[in-house]
Amino acid sequence: MTTLNLEELRKQIDNIDEKIQTLITQRAEIAQSVARAKYAQEAQPNFYRPEREADILLRVIERNQKNQPKVLPDESLTPIFREIISACLSLQKPLKVAYLGPQGTYSQAATAKHFGHGAHTVPVQTIEEVFREVETDRAQYGVVPVENSTEGGVNQTLDCFMSSDLKICGEIELPIHHCLLSQSGDITRLVRVYSHQQSLAQCRSWLSGHLPAVNCIAVSSNAEAARRAAEEPDTAAIAGITAAERYHLQVVKANIEDYPQNTTRFAVLGKHFVPRTGRDKSSFLLSAAQSNHSGALLRLLKPFSDNGLNLTRIESRPSRQNLWEYVFFIDLDGHIEDEAVKTALDLLTTHASLVKHLGSYPRAIA
Ligand SMILES: O=C(O)C(=O)C[C@]1(C(=O)O)C=C[C@@H](O)C=C1
Predict the structure, then answer these.
(1) Distance 106 CA to ligand 1 centre (A)
(2) Based on the structure, what is the number of domains in the chain?
(3) Does 334 fall in a domain?
(4) Residues 54 and 115 in one domain
(5) What's 285's domain CATH number?
(6) pTM score, two decimals?
(7) Per-residue pLDDT tens digits for 168-192
(8) Chain CA centroid to CA 151, Å
(9) Which biological process terms from the Gene Ontology are attached to this UniProt entry (predicted)?
(10) pLDDT 10s digits, 92-126
(11) What are the strands, taking DSSP E only, across the chain?
(12) How far is the CA of 150 from the centre of ligand 1 (A)?
């Protein structure tokens, strides 16, 4: 680009847009042929292929690394490609995805980030209902929060996995930036702050430093907090920026989370097995045999360490079967089809009374 003439530059942009549009249309036509190819292989194929999407997105990031300095950050490019894939997938078969509502929650943002706007997303009221929607085929996939980097695990989700046969088909990481929202945008007259209990906890220090006298009230979701703040004066909500738009609230203060890297991890629930990508995670539910004997947990975890597997998370929950017995949720880097994972699981059988594979899936992508 040599000239700085505005008209000329806009003409160049128009030409590029035309080419992009032609290419996107061509890509969509090929995706339609892919659907026919899938039908030729199976009567009821899976159209959504998380392993293929991960592969495409990683290549977008890899190509972007080659632009030095980068013109656009990865986080600007990947959503564009996700939307293109989402539009192509909706031509093959529109997906129905249930998430923990109401609209305006971070779960909705995570669902939109992962599935794009081509999917039909359905808010439901509880985490249990997300599981049920998928179990009963009212939705093909579901999105539930699993853990937050500041506040830890989401117990309802872990408990649902104990009794469900659904598989984790993917993970989504969503950076969480909380905003203080109110009708007036004035911080001085606030007497009450509503939010979900997790969000209040994630902003604890900010609240005690800046609003020590206000009454913090936990409600069922951040969207519900925003709805109330839109109706009550002298009241604020802690919620995401999308809730501000949805409920016509002013941003009193943005980014009030205590840890700037505050991130929530969500699981994509489904019914199908996801092939290996080479950059996967696996989740298991484990219970130790002779759990009250010394070294029971050590024996449960040793096979993973002996096989060089990196555990990315371990969490315990009461087994709900015997008093003071626990089940362990573990996540590790690797796929159930990796040799190291297979060997570790073989070794585990003598030390575990329960080994339940909750899924292997591609690692979250920016
Ligand atoms: O490769 C496929 O299996 C496709 O259906 C194509 C495509 C895409 O648009 O690239 C669409 C949906 C799948 O989830 C993955 C990829």
Answers:
(1) 26
(2) 4
(3) yes
(4) no
(5) 3.30.70.260
(6) 0.93
(7) 999 999 999 999 999 999 999 899 9
(8) 16
(9) chorismate metabolic process; L-phenylalanine biosynthetic process
(10) 999 999 999 888 889 999 999 999 999 999 999 99
(11) 96-100, 120-124, 141-148, 152-153, 167-175, 179-182, 192-196, 215-219, 235-239, 250-253, 263-270, 280-288, 311-318, 326-333, 352-362
(12) 34
Unique residue bearing structure tokens 């626990």: 326
CB contact at 8 A, 131 and 164: yes
Q: Which residue has the tokens 């509502």?
A: 101
Q: Please indicate, yes or no, whether residues 87 and 98 belong to a single structural domain of this protein.
A: no
56 shares its domain with 110? no
* 104 inside domain: yes
Q: Is 264 a catalytic residue?
A: yes
Q: What is the ipTM of this complex?
A: 0.99
**Ligand 1, atom 11: nearest CA belongs to which residue?**
89
Strands 96-100 and 141-148 come out as: parallel
Tokens 């830890």 locate to 152
Give the domain range for residue 113.
94-176+263-270
What gap in Å lies between CA 250 and CA 348, rounded to an integer? 54
Which two tokens mark 141? 């996939």
Q: What pLDDT, in 10s, does the model give residues 51-85?
A: 999 999 999 999 999 988 899 999 999 999 999 99
Q: Is residue 247 part of a domain?
A: no
Per the CB < 8 A criterion, the answer to whether 241 and 249 are in contact is: no
